Amino acid sequence: MLNTSVNLAGVQLKNPVMTASGTFGSGAEYSEFVDLNQLGAVVTKGVANIPWPGNPTPRIAETTGGMLNAIGLQNPGIDVFVKRDIPFLKQYDTKIIVNVCGKSTEDYLEVVERLADEPVDLLEINISCPNVKEGGIAFGQDPKAVEAITKAVKAKAKQPIIMKLSPNVTDITVMAKAAEAGGADVLSLINTLTGMKIDIQRQCFAIANKTGGLSGPAVKPIALRMVYQVANAVSIPIIGMGGIATAEDAIEFILAGATAVSIGTANFYNPYATIEVVEGIETYMKQHNCEDINQLIGIVK
Ligand SMILES: Cc1cc2nc3c(=O)[nH]c(=O)nc-3n(C[C@H](O)[C@H](O)[C@H](O)COP(=O)(O)O)c2cc1C
Predict the structure, then answer these.
(1) How many alpha carbons fall within 13 Å on the CB side of residue 92?
(2) How far apart are the first and last CA of the chain?
(3) Which among 20, 72, 163, 242 could bridge 54 via Cys, Cβ 3.0 to 4.6 Å?
(4) Residue 28 CB: number of other CB atoms within 10 A?
(5) Closest ligand 1 atom number to CA of residue 20
(6) Which pairing describes strands 66-69 and 211-215: parallel, antiparallel, or unpaired?
(7) Rounded Cα gap, residues 231 and 93, in angstroms
(8) What tens-digit pLDDT sequence spans the chain (301 residues)?
């Protein structure tokens, strides 16, 4: 009997495979393709205290081995989310992780407090959002801000908190340690890498926002390196993501130190990607005579 179950801050997932925020809606869009009962967890798109309209279009562009996006965290706000999306997800036997965004500490806290009595298993705090009070620099790019926002959220949250780290920093281990010092229960990484594309025929930026976040297979080696570095710098569990498209990719992240993995951009071109990763991990475990997935976590030193 294979044990694929992993533990994140006391929450037991049936397997380590989850969706990456913003690439799977709140599950409904994909439920025709994917039996959500088979996933370790569904991570929702980012939700803020009020509806956000997002950035002007065009806001996505294809790149070699990946994509750029500058959606701008468009979302319907916490009121709609609580009424519409949580009851949908509750029908399934999977863990619910809500991704939270905000432009100020108060914005984050409002969402976290609204979710306190909801049937949500974990909160994932996206600190790549621009901090309007600090002139627009993302919370996640300054270790003092990372520690402060983590502490503030931890003090109010009823559920364990996952701090989602930005890779757009010189040394991600500094941010990881700051989040751990602030009381984070789990870390997730990576969010997208800032990039650019120019349309040479129209001689303009491919994305109205000029820059966008790069994701997909192109970022995988960078994401894997960062997961490895962070796994060796902190003692809390890590959710690894960035370019995972196959079970082989997921296993690399687990061997590097990730307790769980998220599938993002791959869902857009292969809606079955998550299920293929779940099945492929089991096949790998059988081939390698591994009875418990926990024996694989971080064994490549
Ligand atoms: C279209 C799109 C929307 C995203 N929206 C969010 C979001 O709302 N919150 C968040 O924390 N990350 C968001 N992300 C980042 C992903 O969750 C993930 O961290 C990143 O894309 C790397 O994984 P991947 O290469 O498997 O896509 C988004 C990514 C994409 C491509």
Answers:
(1) 22
(2) 28
(3) 72
(4) 13
(5) 17
(6) antiparallel
(7) 29
(8) 899 999 999 999 999 999 999 999 989 999 999 999 999 999 999 999 999 999 999 999 999 999 999 999 999 999 999 999 999 999 999 999 999 999 999 999 999 999 999 999 999 999 998 888 888 888 999 999 999 999 999 999 999 999 999 999 999 999 999 999 999 999 999 999 999 999 999 999 999 999 999 999 999 999 999 999 999 999 999 999 999 999 999 999 999 999 999 999 999 999 999 999 999 999 999 999 999 999 999 999 9
- Give the residue ranges of DSSP H helices in 5-115: 78-90, 105-114
Give me the residue spans of the domains in the chain. 6-295
Q: Residue 72 pairs with which residues in a beta bridge?
A: none
204-205/198-199 β-pairing: antiparallel
Q: Is domain 6-295 annotated with CATH 3.20.20.70?
A: yes
* Tokens at 103, concatenated: 């432009």
**22 alpha carbon to ligand 1 midpoint, in Å?**
5
Long-range contacts of 169-177 (CB under 8 A, 24+ apart): 169/140, 169/141, 172/226, 172/229, 172/230, 173/229, 173/230, 173/233, 173/234, 174/143, 175/140, 175/141, 175/143, 175/146, 176/230, 176/233, 176/234, 177/143, 177/233, 177/234
**Active site residue ranges:** 129
String of DSSP letters for 67-87: EEE-----B--HHHHHHHHHH
Residues enclosing ligand 1, CB less than 6 A? 20-23, 45-46, 69, 71, 73, 99, 126, 164, 191-192, 215-216, 219, 241-244, 263-266
